[in-house]
Amino acid sequence: MKIICLIxxxxxxxxxKYDYERNVLIRENxxxxxxxxxACAVAFALTVKRFYPSTVIEVLTMGPQSxxxxxxxxxxxxxxxxxxxxxxxxxxxxxxxTSRVLATYLKSSSVDLILSGTHTLDGDTxxxxxxxxxxxxxxxxxxxxxxxxxxxxxxxxxLSVDHDQTIMTFAVPYPSVLxxxxxxxxKMPYVRYDDLNKEVxxxxxxxxxxxxxxxxxxxxFDGSKTQVVSTxxxxxxxxxxxxxxxxxxxxxxxxDLLKEKGVLA
Amino acid sequence: MKxxxxxxxxxxPQDLSLFAASKMLVKDEACIISAIGYQEDLPLGNSxxxxxxxxxxxxxxxxxxxxxxxxxxxxxxVHHFDIILFPSTPLGRILAPRLAIALHVGLVADVTGxxxxxxxxxxxxxxxxxxxxxxxxxxxxxxxxxxxxxxIFTYHSEDVKQTVYQTLKKHEPKASGIILLExxxxxxxxxxRDSKVLISGGGGVLHQxxxxxDLARVLNAVVSASRRVVDSGVAHxxxxxxxxxxxxxxxxxxxxxxxxxxxxxxxxxxxETIIAVNTNKNAPICSLATLVVEGDAIEFIEKLLVKIxxxxxxxxxxxx
Lengths: 265, 320
Known about the structure:
heterodimer; A: about 260 residues; alpha/beta; Rossmann fold; two-stranded antiparallel sheet; about 25% helix; globular; B: about 325 residues; 2 domains; five-stranded parallel beta sheet; 7 helices; 16 strands; about 20% helix; elongated
């Protein structure tokens, strides 16, 4: 079985820094992390490989050249191949252009399962996996919370999906695009101590726009269907408020408010 | 004359936010608003919609987004809608992007604001976990497509039209291969949306999150959490407040160690009173609070519990 995991390295949103004067995100020195739900996808692929050692796992990302060291870290797990699609021409790609680039690469690969996270923490549109499924004309299931490993051999994969008020269980065919939820139980393992400095760069493939056979006007700003006009930080309307500390007087004002609101008597 | 298509999802059948948003998009221009969905999710009789299209479950199921997209594409080629709107529900979030590719148009996700002026439509949505807002323009001929966060746009009107109903016939789906084996209703716990008092925890109480229950018990409240806590795996997603969680409307919201990302605050639109406990009294949530307690939230819980006991206070039964 061949599995390709779509992954994205994102700025650590907890480490968010903003230049309020120029109204731009400060990207310098921002820590890049593997999007948490994409890690679930890789972890599931590794679980499959433990059950079925002949499984071949490839991780695929589109991003700047600088993420190659992050890709190598993932190659130090039991991941067989990593592909980084990178080109200056891709800068400014929206989800339409991004999914087109990734789908172009995937069209040339033979694959049984395409895995991803349900959403990323930075853009949080959830578009790309669904859009790739459409480009490739494949079924797509999202918000996956559990997968029945025993069903792997049956020709269809049995999995459960969180659908807000219901949990739905499906049998999905191969190949399909499957997006995992953070609530799935798959956790990334640590790199074995002996493998920490393992040489893996020969298993990292780097591909550019020309190699994919895409024209520059099909990608980046020109190939996008949407455009970010501006970004800003929402300012809150100030309210009359009382400020206290955790001391006798402060706690008393909390109690008074709880009484006033009819919570305590 | 603008033509608008709204996809009505199972999860929010009575939600008029798509209708409200379409009114903001077309402004004063004359328009025909059509709704599409499955029988059980649609209104009956006269409604706010000019037209209702019913999808036949025998032809295509909602979870089969590949074939549902093909059906919607076919409908678009017949009707040429100017605007197509989806709710940001689990289904809407995977159906809309597929249709956008099928129609080769741009798509904006989770829109929370619409700025339509001089023939230009700028869409506002949160990014970076709500820490940043982005204003986005859709290029090209259209149709204009977006998904909208439920409960953000509201519409109040008694206007009812003579709705025309039609069942969509003749759609030959390809075999998608997805088979539905089972549908289970989730066990209904106490819904944070129904609680009058919420004790909500964020990053500041991440490591002692269970302590919130102690206070909740005494105040007869329900515990909720910020996305940070949910993403860390400490709390379940069903108790998450905010844009990617739930919009809540308690009369009292006690925010413990929550800094208050824009995304979190989006979920607090209808809260009456907020008590914010934070080591940083300038945290964004504090500007929304009636009472700001500067300090460690766990220490706050401990001391407040002692004080409540000393004063022999009890919760009022009707708070829930």
